[in-house]
Design the sequence.
C-alpha cells in the first residue's frame, strides 16, 4: 500500500468509530432516563465509542460459549492455517481456531483483569481512606509499607512472587492486586486528605460519629469521582500487566486462551508477514483506548470543568 | 471630585449584555447596562453577589470569564471599539492601559516569583520600560503606596509580606504602566478593618496622583462611599440607579437602594442582665497553644442563658481558637471550660454524647460545612437520629419541623443537595443542623461574613428568634462591628490572644474605650464620604502630636 490509501484507511476507521459512538449515543439517550440520560446526552462521541466497545467486550466475554464456533481448546485443523472459511481468522500454532480463542480470551483476560482491579480497589481505597481519616501512627505504618512495596519495580516483584508461589490464576490475581493496591492507596489517601480537613468532617467528629460512618458516609461519597476514574485507568494497567506476564510465560497458563500468551505463541507468524498474532494485541489496544476514553470523560465530569 | 466630569470621556459601555453558560443553555447575567467613565473618575459598582458587578467590571476590559460571552452592546475605550478589536490589539491594551486588581492578592500573585519580578513583567513585556528602570519605578511606587521599606520589599516573595501589604503591592503592579483605567474587584474584602484603611487610603491617593480612572467594585457601601465619585447600584444584572456619591447617600431614590442602607440600622433590644445564675459556658483562665506559641493567654468569660456574647478581634486574635477550646478540638494547656458549672473534658473524644450534644457549632463557610453529597434529610436528621434516637416517621417529622423553623419549605427542600441551595439557604441548613441536637449553647463562627447584607440580616433575625424560642446561649465570633452592635448582649474584644476589654454592649460602644477597642471602632467605615479623609487627618494629627511630644 502506498501512503495515501493507508492514510485514507486510518481516517475512515476513525470516522467509522466516531460515527458508531454517535449512533450509540442517540440510541442510549433514547432508551435511558433521568440522571443517566442527562449524563449521556452531554458525553463526547469518543466516550460513547468507549462505552460501546466496553459493552461489546463484556457481551462477548459473557456469551463466549454461545458465539464461539468451536471449543476453547479444540484442535480443529493444521497449524497456522490461513484466513478462510470455516476458520475465518485461521488457526494457531497447535491448530486451534483463532476466532474461538480470541472470544474465549476476552472472557479470561478481561475477567481476570476486572477481578484483580476490583480487589485492588476495595483494599486500596479502604486502607487509603482509613489512613487519611485516622492519621497519626496508623497512617505512618500503612504509608511506609506502601512506600516499600512501591520501591520494588512492579514487574520484578510479580515475577519474584509468581516464581515462589507458582503460576496459578489465584496467585496471579493476588500478586497483581497487591501491587496495584499500593497505587490506589496513594490516590485514595491524598484525595481523602483534602476532604478530611473540611468543616463538615470536623462537624461530624464533634458530633461523635464513628470511624465507619466517617469513612463510608462522609468521605467516600466525596472521593467517589476520582476513584471511579482511577478504576478505569488502573484496569488498563492491570490488563497490560497480565498480558505482559502471560507473554513472558508466567501469567495465565496454557491451554487457557489469553490474549497475552496468544501473541507469544503465534509470534513467529510475524516473520512471514502474517498479522494474525497482532489480532489479540489489537484487542488489548482497543479495549485500553476505549476505557481511557471513558475515563477521560469521567475525570472531566469529576473535576467539574465546563467548556 | 466634580471637576472629573469636565474631563474627556474614557470609557463608554452601551447596552451591555453578557450571557453565562449553565446546564447547556445560555442565560443572561448582565441585562443591558450602560456605563460612562471620564478620565480620572472613580465609579463605584455596588450590588449583592450575582448582581453581575464583577462580570461587568471585566467586560470593561473587553474580557469575560470562561463560560461567559458578551452577547450585545458596544464597549469603547478611548476611541477603540473593544468588541471589534483583534485579540492582538486588546492584548496590547491589557496591563498597559487597562489594569485589573483582584479580590485576593494572595491568589493573584505567583508564589514562585518575587514581587518586583511580577511588577516588572508587564512594563518590560509591553516595551514601556527596561528592566532596571522598572525596578527603580517599582521602588518609587511602593514608597508612594506607603509600603514599609520600599527599597527591599519588592525582593520578597508573596508569602513573606502581610495581606494588606500584598494588596498594596498588587495595586502598585497594576499601576506599573500608569494605565488610564484600573478595575478594582473587591480589593479589601478579605482584609481586617484596620488593614483595610491603609489599603483604601493608598489606593485613593495613587489614583488621584496619576489621574487614573477606576471602577471600584464592592458589596460594602461604606467603603465605596469613601472611594467613588459616582455610584452605580446593580441588581440581578440590571442597573437600579446611578448618582453622585453624596447625592446617593443623602437621598437614594429606589426602594432597593434604600433597603441596602437600612440594613445597618438593625438592632435588637438589650436582654435583661443575668441574675446570679450559673453560666451555661464559662471559660476560666484558658491558655492554649499551637506548638510553642500561645495563641490564647489566660482567657476568661462567661456566656449565660438567652444571651449572646460577641467575641471580636482581627485575624490572629485568637477568637476562633477560643471556639476550638470550647468544642474540645484544641485541648487547653491551662484553665478549664465549665458547662453548667461542671468542667467539660478537655478533649472532644472524651466527652459524653450528651456533652457533645449541648455544644453545637455553626460555621462561616456553609459550603464546606455541609457534606455536598448528602441530602438535607440526612444532613439535618443525623444529629436528631444520633442524639435523640429518632427513627423513621418521627425523624422525618422532626426534620420537617426544623425546616419550618429555618423558613424553608419542607416539601421542596427535604430531598435537595447543598449545591441546589443559595448561600443564605445553606447557612440556614447549618443552623438547622445545630438545632437538631437540641443544644443549649451554639458557637456561631463568622456566620454572616460570607453573605450579602440583606441575606445576613435574615440570618441574624432568625438566630435571634430561635434564641428566644429555645433559650439558647450564643457565642458569636465576628470581625464585623456592625453585626455586634445589632445582636450582642455582651462583647469580648480580643487581641493577640488576650481579652482586651469585656462587658455589656452598651458599655463597650460608649467611650472611654480601651485603646485597641478605640482603634477597631474607629476603623469601621461609615456611610459618610468624608469619613476616611477625617480619620486619616486624625491619625496624622495624633502621630505628629506623639512625635512632637
Sequence:
Amino acid at each position: 500500500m502506498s501512503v495515501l490509501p493507508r492514510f485514507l484507511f486510518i481516517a475512515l476507521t476513525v470516522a467509522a468509530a466516531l460515527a458508531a459512538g454517535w449512533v450509540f449515543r442517540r440510541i442510549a439517550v433514547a432508551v435511558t432516563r433521568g440522571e443517566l440520560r442527562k449524563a449521556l446526552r452531554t458525553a463526547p462521541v469518543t466516550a460513547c465509542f468507549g462505552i460501546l466497545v466496553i459493552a461489546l467486550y463484556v457481551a462477548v466475554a459473557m456469551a463466549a460459549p454461545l458465539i464461539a464456533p468451536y471449543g476453547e481448546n479444540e484442535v480443529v485443523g493444521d497449524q497456522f492455517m490461513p484466513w478462510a472459511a470455516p476458520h475465518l481468522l485461521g488457526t494457531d500454532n497447535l491448530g486451534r481456531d483463532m476466532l474461538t480463542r480470541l472470544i474465549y480470551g476476552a472472557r479470561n483476560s478481561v475477567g481476570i483483569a476486572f477481578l484483580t482491579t476490583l480487589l485492588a480497589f476495595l483494599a486500596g481505597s479502604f486502607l487509603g481512606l482509613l489512613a487519611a481519616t485516622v492519621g497519626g501512627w496508623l497512617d505512618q505504618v500503612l504509608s511506609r509499607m506502601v512506600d516499600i512495596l512501591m520501591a520494588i519495580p512492579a514487574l520484578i516483584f510479580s515475577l519474584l512472587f509468581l516464581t515462589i508461589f507458582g503460576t496459578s490464576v489465584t496467585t496471579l490475581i493476588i500478586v497483581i492486586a497487591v501491587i496495584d493496591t499500593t497505587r490506589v492507596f496513594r490516590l485514595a489517601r491524598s484525595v481523602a486528605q483534602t476532604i478530611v480537613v473540611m468543616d463538615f468532617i470536623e462537624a461530624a467528629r464533634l458530633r461523635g460519629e464513628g470511624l465507619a460512618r466517617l469513612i463510608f458516609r462522609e468521605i467516600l461519597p466525596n472521593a467517589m469521582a476520582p476513584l471511579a476514574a482511577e478504576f478505569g485507568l488502573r484496569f488498563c494497567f492491570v490488563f497490560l500487566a497480565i498480558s505482559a506476564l502471560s507473554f513472558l510465560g508466567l501469567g495465565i497458563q496454557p491451554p487457557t486462551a489469553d490474549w497475552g500468551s496468544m501473541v507469544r505463541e503465534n509470534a513467529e507468524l510475524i516473520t512471514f508477514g502474517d498479522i494474525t498474532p497482532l489480532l489479540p494485541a489489537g484487542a488489548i489496544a482497543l479495549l485500553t483506548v476505549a476505557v481511557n476514553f471513558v475515563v477521560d470523560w469521567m475525570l472531566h465530569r469529576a473535576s467539574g470543568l465546563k467548556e | 471630585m466634580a471637576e472629573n466630569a469636565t474631563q474627556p470621556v474614557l470609557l463608554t459601555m452601551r447596552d451591555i449584555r453578557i450571557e453565562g453558560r449553565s446546564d447547556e443553555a445560555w442565560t443572561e447575567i448582565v441585562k443591558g447596562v450602560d456605563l460612562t467613565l471620564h478620565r480620572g473618575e472613580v465609579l463605584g459598582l455596588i450590588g449583592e453577589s450575582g448582581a453581575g458587578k464583577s462580570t461587568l467590571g471585566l467586560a470593561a476590559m473587553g474580557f469575560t470569564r470562561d463560560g461567559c460571552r458578551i452577547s450585545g452592546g458596544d464597549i469603547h475605550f478611548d476611541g477603540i471599539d473593544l468588541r471589534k478589536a483583534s485579540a492582538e490589539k486588546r492584548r496590547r491594551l491589557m496591563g498597559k492601559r487597562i489594569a485589573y486588581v483582584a479580590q485576593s492578592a494572595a491568589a493573584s500573585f505567583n508564589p514562585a516569583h518575587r514581587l518586583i519580578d511580577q511588577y516588572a513583567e508587564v512594563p518590560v513585556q509591553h516595551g514601556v520600560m527596561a528592566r532596571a528602570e522598572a525596578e527603580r519605578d517599582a521602588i518609587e511606587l511602593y514608597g508612594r503606596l506607603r509600603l514599609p521599606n520600599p527599597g527591599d520589599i519588592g525582593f520578597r516573595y508573596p508569602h513573606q509580606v502581610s495581606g494588606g501589604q500584598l494588596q498594596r503591592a498588587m495595586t502598585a503592579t497594576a499601576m506599573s504602566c500608569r494605565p488610564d483605567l484600573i478595575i478594582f474587584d473587591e480589593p479589601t474584602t478579605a482584609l481586617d478593618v484596620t488593614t483595610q484603611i491603609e489599603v483604601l487610603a493608598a489606593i485613593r491617593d495613587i489614583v488621584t496622583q496619576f489621574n487614573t480612572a477606576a471602577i471600584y467594585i464592592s458589596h460594602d457601601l461604606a467603603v465605596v462611599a469613601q472611594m467613588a465619585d459616582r455610584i452605580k447600584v446593580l441588581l440581578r444584572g440590571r442597573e437600579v440607579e446611578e448618582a453622585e456619591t453624596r447625592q446617593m447617600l443623602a437621598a437614594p431614590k429606589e426602594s432597593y437602594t434604600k433597603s441596602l442602607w437600612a440594613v445597618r440600622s438593625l438592632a435588637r433590644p438589650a436582654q435583661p442582665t443575668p441574675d446570679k445564675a450559673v453560666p451555661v459556658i464559662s471559660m476560666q483562665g484558658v491558655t492554649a497553644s499551637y506548638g510553642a506559641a500561645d495563641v490564647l493567654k489566660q482567657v476568661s468569660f462567661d456566656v449565660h442563658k438567652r444571651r449572646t456574647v460577641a467575641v471580636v478581634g482581627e485575624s490572629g486574635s485568637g477568637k476562633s481558637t477560643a471556639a476550638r477550646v470550647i468544642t474540645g478540638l484544641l485541648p487547653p494547656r491551662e484553665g478549664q471550660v465549665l458547662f453548667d458549672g461542671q468542667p467539660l473534658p478537655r478533649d472532644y473524644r472524651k466527652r459524653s454524647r450528651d456533652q457533645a450534644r449541648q455544644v453545637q457549632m455553626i460555621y462561616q463557610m456553609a459550603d464546606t460545612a455541609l457534606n455536598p453529597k448528602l441530602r438535607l434529610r440526612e444532613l439535618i436528621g443525623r444529629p436528631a437520629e444520633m442524639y435523640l434516637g429518632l427513627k423513621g416517621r418521627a425523624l422525618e417529622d422532626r426534620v420537617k419541623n426544623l425546616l419550618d423553623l429555618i423558613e424553608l419549605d419542607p416539601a421542596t427542600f427535604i430531598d435537595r443537595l447543598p449545591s441546589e441551595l443559595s448561600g443564605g439557604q445553606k447557612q440556614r441548613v447549618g443552623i438547622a443542623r445545630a438545632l437538631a441536637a437540641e443544644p443549649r449553647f451554639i458557637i456561631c463562627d463568622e456566620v454572616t461574613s460570607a453573605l450579602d447584607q440583606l441575606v445576613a440580616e435574615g440570618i441574624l433575625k432568625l438566630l435571634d428568634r430561635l434564641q428566644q424560642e429555645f433559650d439558647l446561649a450564643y457565642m458569636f465570633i465576628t470581625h464585623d462591628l456592625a453585626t455586634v452592635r445589632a445582636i450582642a448582649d455582651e462583647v469580648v474584644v480580643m487581641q493577640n490572644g488576650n481579652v482586651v476589654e469585656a462587658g455589656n454592649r452598651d458599655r463597650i460602644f460608649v467611650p472611654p474605650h480601651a485603646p485597641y477597642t478605640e482603634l477597631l471602632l474607629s476603623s469601621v467605615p461609615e456611610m459618610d464620604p468624608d469619613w476616611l479623609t477625617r480619620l486619616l487627618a486624625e491619625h496624622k494629627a495624633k502621630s505628629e502630636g506623639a512625635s512632637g511630644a
About this structure: The mean pLDDT of chain B is 85.
